Amino acid sequence: MHTNPAPNERAILAGFPALPGMEDTLDELGLLADTAGAEIVGRVRQRRESVHPGNFLSKGKTEETKAAAEEAKAKLLICDEELSPAQVRNLEKALDLRVIDRTELILDIFSRRARSREAHLQVELAQLRYLLPRLAGMWGHLSRTGGGIGTRGPGETQLEVDRRRVRQKITFLERHLESVEVERRTQAKRRMEAVRISLVGYTNAGKSTLFNQLTRSEVLVEDKLFATLDTTTRKLGLSGGGAVLLSDTVGFIRKLPHHLVASFRATLREVESADLLLHVVDAAHPAREEQVQAVEEVLASLLERDVPRLLVLNKADILPDERELELRRRHPEGIIVSALRGEDRERLLDRVAAELRGMRVPVRVECVPARWPELLGLTARAERVSEEHGAECVRSEWRFDPRDLGKLRRAGFTVEVLDPFAGVEE
To answer: I need a surface site. Which of 4, 79, 307, 354 has the fewest CB within 10 A?
Structure first.
């Protein structure tokens, strides 16, 4: 892989193809480059029917880009697509610039912003997975052509060595992360007795700000992409009593490298095991609908079950009135809030409590008084509605997640579902 963007390194952006919304895509690429420390001094937009396997830019656009780079004294070209080694090599030769693609830029940002040991391992694994299929292209200029005796050049020999080393390191990292995942699963089992909610959403949608305001925490908040890489979990009190575990997770993005999704799968287990997802959206962003779709696509690749979602349209404090009316019509199921306004946070907590209540079924449980403490130990995730203690029997009413009823019955408790239309899973 290339040397990462140096601080204040002057760079030009290149987008392909020129489709509706590409300006937003290049704006986002510019934010990524800014997060990595580069200074954007130009943009190249290209219209082509298809990308040539050896040349990302046409001859005319290559000449235009070279002239723009010389005038702006740029040293780096950042392309908004994933490039092949041949495309990178040909561009660098034609432009006399370093060339990186969107995937390499995102990997670089993750590498810089990783804080925990686990995040560093995950990023390194993603980088190696990205690098492995590109080794042949990187060594192509040293390999001899032809076949037969005497044609095994130094490039091919070194390529085989490099591939073996990269594969060995990938295997090592995968095993290390497997042990981390076992530890996470152990932690998850300890948390099974609590209702879990995860904040998900596009990067820079305001998840960490909302998390801090709701839990009175101090998770890092920056107006940059991917400020949060490590999942943070805190206890959150809900209106009407009761508490849940709230997790802040890494933000998603369009064209999120699949290497990262695979490597961060252990971190994203919080999303997979959540009872409710709060999909936080930057309601003031002009490309919010595309961002919502991008997040849903990543979630679809992660989740093996349909986890309930609540759409949280954030940053209402900077939203024009006419835009808010449009959002209410377009997303009647969502809730419009500002993480910075206390009354909005209270409305959100009320809505979360209502969503959780709607996911539960009303039940009546009967047991002898001696087993009441045992029953309480199995109801940490439930909402207690009432209880009546008698000399021979304790009658209580609850609202339970349908998935939790089986363990009560297996423990020998008498359970009656009060809503005959509730779908109960055991």
So the answer is: 354
210 in Cβ contact with 312 (< 8 Å): yes
Identify any residues that bridge with 200 across adjacent strands, giving them in sequence order: 279
Of 358, 374, 403, the residue that ends a domain is: 358
Strand partners, 244: 195, 236
Give the per-residue pLDDT at 355. Answer: 92
Contacts (Cβ under 8 Å, ≥6 apart) of 264 = 122, 126, 250
pLDDT at 147: 43
H helix or E strand, kind and range, residue 234: strand 232-237
368 and 346 in a common domain:
no
Please give the model's pTM, rounded to 2 decimal places: 0.80
Average pLDDT over every residue of 193-221? 86
Residue closest to 181 by CA, chosen among 268, 276, 81: 268
Distance, in Å, from the CA atom of 60 to the CA atom of 71, rounded to the nearest integer, reads 17
pLDDT band at 144 (very low <50, low <70, confident <90, very high): very low
Asked if 251 and 104 sit in the same domain, the reply is: no
The answer to whether residue 185 sits within a structural domain is no
Q: Are residues 135 and 20 part of one domain?
A: no
**pLDDT in the model for residue 330:** 93
Q: Where are the alpha helices (DSSP H) in 216-253?
A: none
- pLDDT computed for residue 76 by the predictor: 95
Q: Tell me which of 88, 109, 130 is where a domain ends.
A: 109
Residue 329, domain CATH:
3.40.50.300
334 and 280 in contact (C-beta within 8 Å)?
no
Tokens standing for residue 126: 């993603």
Q: Is 185 left (phi over 0), alpha (psi -120 to 50) or beta?
A: alpha
76-91: per-residue pLDDT in tens? 999 998 888 889 999 9
Q: Are 73 and 9 in contact (CB under 8 A)?
A: no
Rounded CA separation 75/77 (Å)? 7
Supply the range of the domain harboring residue 397.
361-417
Query: Encoding tokens for residue 66?
Result: 């070279």
Q: How many domains does the chain divide into?
A: 4
Widest distance between CA atoms in the chain:
94
Q: Are residues 51 and 84 in the same domain?
A: yes
Stretch 281-296: mean pLDDT: 91
